[in-house]
Design a protein that fits this description.
Blueprint (H helix, E strand, L loop, with lengths): L1 H10 L1 H25 L17 H24 L8 H11 L5 H11 L3 H10 L13 H5 L8
């Protein structure tokens, strides 16, 4: 039985290689498009909306989050050993697109701990986009309002 599957894989090697290559190209293009189109202050601003939404806004919200879920799941699959593609980049792109609760700390952690910020900013620079701004330090709000103790 195992030899049957082995011969099937050999007989269809060109098709399997084409699917693997196509998967790599498509997922890379999607991830690049999401990363390049983000505003540079994406990690600093709160993107949550409150209040009532129209049917059109709800539809866009649902479609955007479904696409984000697809990107996250595809990234998780591509992050497995032996799979071609940009797994962590796809997961980051899906998180950036989503409105999941807890998304911001998770995304910041991925960008800082997984060393994704430098390649993402290099990619943005290549497309003439400003780099993603780093999150403001916790004391920045006090300094901006002139409430720090050293200014007395």
């Amino acid at each position: 039985m195992i030899s049957h599957y082995g011969s099937w894989a050999i007989d269809h090697a060109a098709g399997i290689a084409a699917i693997v290559f196509l998967t790599f190209v498509v997922t890379s293009v999607i991830a690049i498009c999401v990363v390049v189109r983000l505003p540079s202050d994406f990690l600093r601003t709160a993107s949550r909306q409150s209040g009532r939404r129209s049917v059109r806004e709800w539809s866009a919200f649902v479609v955007k989050n479904l696409l984000a879920l697809v990107l996250i799941v595809a990234g998780a699959v591509l992050a497995l050993p032996g799979m071609p593609g940009q797994g962590l980049l796809m997961i980051a792109a899906g998180l950036m697109l989503s409105d999941l609760p807890g998304r911001d700390p998770l995304l910041r952690g991925m960008l800082e701990k997984c060393s994704l910020r430098t390649p993402l900013n290099r990619l943005r620079r290549w497309f003439s986009r400003p780099p993603l701004a780093e999150r403001a330090p916790p004391s920045a709000g006090l300094l901006d309002r002139g409430m720090n103790r050293s200014s007395k």
